[in-house]
Amino acid sequence: MTAAVQHLPAFTGTCPTALRLRPEQSTVHALDLAVVGLNHKTAPLNVRERAAVRDGEQEALLRHLRQHAHEVMLLSTCNRTEVYMAGVQGDPLSAFEGAWGHALRQHLYVHQGVQAADHLYRVAAGLDSLVLGETQIQGQVKRAWQDAQQRGDTAALLNKAAQGALATGKRVRHETGLNDNVVSVSSAAVELARGIFGSLEGRTALIVGAGETAELTLTHLRAAGVKDVIVVNRTEERARLLAEKVGGRACASEMLHTLLPEADVVIASSSAPHYVLKPQGVQDALRGRAAPMFLIDISVPRILDPAIADVPGAHLYNLDDLEDIVQSNLSTRVSLLPQAQEILGEGVADLKRWNAFREAR
């Protein structure tokens, strides 16, 4: 099968027997829905980067996936890449690997029928996230569905499933209190920074990127006492709009190395086809600084060269390093999971009843 996109060397690995779907093993489901993907539970960051949806690649991926299903929805976040399909033709795992051009199935999961619907509902409710109950995923699922609708890639089944997942996710959050005092990726990043400096009072933060995650991170940094904020982005206008919101300075990406010596905290939350910061740049910035520099890359793919970690005075972290902070906050919300699962069950049951009525008609 010809790969639709090839941008990294193939990841080699064997496929566990449990994940192989042969025609003689497949089960016919009344709910003709499937999801295949990987996330922070099944794949480390360097593998998740292989399946990240880069700028300009989405249409090629979708063109390949449309050959394998009547309806297609692509969900890509910093911690997951998933394809939801209705009217599946053939093996969903092969469709996914063929689109990305990598042997990924050692890290892939596949759910079909009711299990696929249950997975989508769990994702939208934040129950499958690195940060249990986080709210950002709700908006990401909504945008993924709306984008698929606008492209004409969805019809009755995926539309109903996505609508049901979003409505059920809201119920879970409002009725269980699952998102009360929830730790987000952004707030966990700020906690890591506190661990380096003790206090962020009077510090200067530089953030590369101007999207939703960047804004959330800057909000937490301001609350933690950061005095000066610098927003660097490829599009200077977007940097200016975010800087105005948080009371900071906006600069074009060409100014990154010039401004870097001022930064105590560097947050990378953007997409780029290459590393925007390398060890030499950080080493130059630290020359003459008395204080260390904290850097965290919450981009997927990463845009800070991992070799920066070897620079004296530089403390580099990535998404996988946030897990300890996230886990420490988990115990207070685990008791809410049975109620959340009951609400999810009601939502999936509604979808099953709708589908049975539709097939009967």
UniProtKB/TrEMBL annotation:
Gene3D superfamilies linked: Glutamyl-tRNA reductase, N-terminal domain, NAD(P)-binding Rossmann-like Domain
Residue ranges annotated for the Glutamyl-tRNA reductase N-terminal domain, each copy included: 36-176
Entries under Pfam families matching the protein: GlutR_N (PF05201), Shikimate_DH (PF01488)
Domain Quinate/shikimate 5-dehydrogenase/glutamyl-tRNA reductase, chain residue ranges per copy: 191-325
Residues annotated to bind substrate: T77, C78, N79, R80, S129, E134, T135, Q136, Q140
Organism of origin: Deinococcus ruber
Name of the molecule in the record: Glutamyl-tRNA reductase
Classification via PROSITE patterns: GLUTR
Additional remarks: During catalysis, the active site Cys acts as a nucleophile attacking the alpha-carbonyl group of tRNA-bound glutamate with the formation of a thioester intermediate between enzyme and glutamate, and the concomitant release of tRNA(Glu). The thioester intermediate is finally reduced by direct hydride transfer from NADPH, to form the product GSA.
Record remark on domains: Possesses an unusual extended V-shaped dimeric structure with each monomer consisting of three distinct domains arranged along a curved 'spinal' alpha-helix. The N-terminal catalytic domain specifically recognizes the glutamate moiety of the substrate. The second domain is the NADPH-binding domain, and the third C-terminal domain is responsible for dimerization.
Residues at the active site: C78 (nucleophile)
Superkingdom of origin: Bacteria
Family under the similarity heading: Belongs to the glutamyl-tRNA reductase family.
Site entry (Important for activity), positions: H119
Signal sequence annotation: none
Gene Ontology biological-process entries: protoporphyrinogen IX biosynthetic process from glutamate
Residues that bind NADP(+): G209, A210, G211, E212, T213, A214
EC number: 1.2.1.70
Job description of the protein: Catalyzes the NADPH-dependent reduction of glutamyl-tRNA(Glu) to glutamate 1-semialdehyde (GSA).
Pathway connected to this protein: Porphyrin-containing compound metabolism; protoporphyrin-IX biosynthesis; 5-aminolevulinate from L-glutamyl-tRNA(Glu): step 1/2
